[in-house]
Structures are given as structure tokens and as C-alpha cells.
Amino acid sequence: MKHRLAFASVALASTLALGGCAFLTPNWNALHPTAKPTPSKPTSSATPTLTATNPAKLASVDVMVLSATADDTGIDIVAQASNISEDGGTCTLIVSQAATKKILQAKSEANVTDTQCFPFHLPLTGFASGVATFTVSYVSPTSTGNSSVGQVVIP
What we know:
Strand content: 35-45%
CATH topology of the largest domain: Immunoglobulin-like
Structural class: mainly beta
Largest sheet: 10 strands, mixed
Shape: elongated
Number of domains: 2
CATH class of the largest domain: Mainly Beta
Number of helices: 2
Order of helices and strands: HHEEEEEEEEEE
CATH architecture of the largest domain: Sandwich
Helix content: 10-25%
């Protein structure tokens, strides 16, 4: 009797678990259409017209600077896009000091919970000793964001 009860319990649990998968299908209508499409006959006088579509709105993400240092070899910045984990984005560093402005881009990669920008290293060519300001921005096909303005002291 114990074996029958155990078998019935396993069978019932398996049926419920696997049956629930049908409700989790991401595109239910693709598998179970509610109405059949009716083909339309093309007319000879119809000419196709192009209509502009609005681009998808990008999700806003926070860009955090994790490290910003400068030494005799250059400026090193490490940043990440928080609360999004995706590949395919681009990080952009903009460093300014007086009339000097330099822009550097780096790829990014998904981390467990965030998206890491590849580390930036910018040579000091064109910069003088003193304070420089910088920002880091992140853009991907789905997300965008900017860091707050930071400062780094160039030796």
C-alpha cells in the first residue's frame, strides 16, 4: 500500500509540474492561435508606403565608478552599469581638463548582477598636473546611463 501511495504521489506531482509548463510558454499564441489569419488579395494599384516607427525606449541604468586613479603612466578608471547584466554594451569615458578633452570607449560584459565595463587606461599625454573631471556612460541596445561627474588628481 505504501508503494502505491508513493507512486501515486510522484505521478500526481509530475503531472502537475509538467502540465504547468504549458502555461509558462513565452509565446502562447504562437502555439495556440485563437483565430486563423485570412489571406488578402493584393491589388495592382496598391503601392507600399513606409511609415516611421518610434525607436524602443531604452531602460535607464545607474553607472557607478568603482575606482579612479592617476599615476605617472596614466588615468585608470573602473566602472559598471548597476542592476543590469547583459553583454553587447559600450562604455565611454570622457576626461576633461581646461581645454583638453579625451574620449575613450571600452566594451562591457555581463557579471552576475551588473555589467562591467572593461577597465579604462588613458595616457597622460595632453594633460597637466592637477585636477581633471570625468564621466562614464553606458549604452546598449536595451539600456543607457551616465555616472555622476568625478574628479581625479593627475600627478
